[in-house]
Amino acid sequence: MKATDPARFTDMVITATGEDIAVFTEIARQAGVLVYRSAPRPAGPGDHRQRVQFRLHMHHR
Length: 61
Known about the structure:
About 25% of the residues lie in helices and about 45% in strands. The protein is of the alpha+beta class and about 60 residues long. Strands 1, 2, 3 and 4 form a 4-stranded antiparallel beta sheet that branches. The protein is elongated, with a radius of gyration of 14 Å. The termini are close together.
């Protein structure tokens, strides 16, 4: 990437089980696109899932 090219990121919020979030995190990490992952928060009252915010770097190919 040239120094003048803007960085491209995708922000997303995933609501899923802790196991599914762990799998998604590992895939993003192995692919080299994980920039940020927030701490898990409850999805809502009576919902056993968690909510996590991700920022992923979108590679230019």
